[in-house]
Amino acid sequence: MRLRTSAAAVALAGAVTAGFAAGPASAATTSATSATSAQAAAPWCLGHRLNAKGAVDKLWVWNGCKSNQSYKVRLANVPDLACRQLKPGGADYFTWGWPGRFDGLVTC
Fold first, then answer.
1. Which of 40, 71, 74, 75 has the smallest set of CB atoms within 10 Å of its CB?
2. Which of 44, 52, 49, 56 is closest to 91 using CA atoms?
3. Mean pLDDT for each consecutive 10-residue tract of the chain (108 residues)?
């Protein structure tokens, strides 16, 4: 009886450990995938120019597309900027300070 209990305990412990090892990793992967797919890169016709010299970064964004474009400026180390919409031929100007870093334009 003692041997059966020990074998059952070992089997149960192995199953629980395997479940914990697989659970969080697959949940993290799913979260990262859904966050990435929600914000695709902005289209190539949405142009930008960045001046990252000095303490304040400056970004110009213009719409060379034939339709309205909704986009957001992604930044590292600080919150992203709000979603904006540009008409064809329109332009926006943004500034932010250190420690912010430009990470790209994404659709929103």
1. 40
2. 49
3. 42 40 40 52 93 94 96 96 96 95 95
